[in-house]
Write a structure and sequence with these properties.
By secondary structure, this protein is an all-alpha fold. 81% of the residues lie in helices and 0% in strands. Helix 2 packs across helix 3 and helix 2 packs antiparallel against helix 4. 3% of the residues are buried.
């Protein structure tokens, strides 16, 4: 940052090219960590407030011991989590200049 400013670049250019690019790496990692928490939050909020949705559907399936519903919701959650991890790894190639495809 100091070197970019010493070269005469403007504040906006320094922030977007240098600071934001390095700050996106932990941000992307944090977003993937939050995805399962969002799924669990929907389970709790929908069941607590009686909102019809996948969360209340899952809780009802657990209470009725309907293993097909529970299995499918666990599968859906795991697929969403794996897709989030995959998208994060792909986005690392755009954000982090150290991660490139080798020739």
């Amino acid at each position: 940052m100091r070197t970019a400013r010493a070269k005469g670049l403007g504040d906006a250019s320094v922030m977007f090219r240098h600071v934001l690019r390095n700050a996106l790496i932990p941000i992307l990692t944090g977003v993937v960590v939050i995805l399962p928490l969002l799924f669990m939050g929907s389970l709790l909020v929908e069941s607590f407030f009686g909102i019809p949705g996948l969360g209340s559907y899952t809780i009802d399936g657990i209470q009725r011991q309907d293993f097909a519903i529970v299995r499918s919701m666990v599968f859906l959650g795991s697929v969403l989590y794996v897709l989030g991890l995959l998208l994060t790894d792909i986005s690392y190639t755009f954000v982090d200049p150290r991660v490139r495809l080798s020739d």
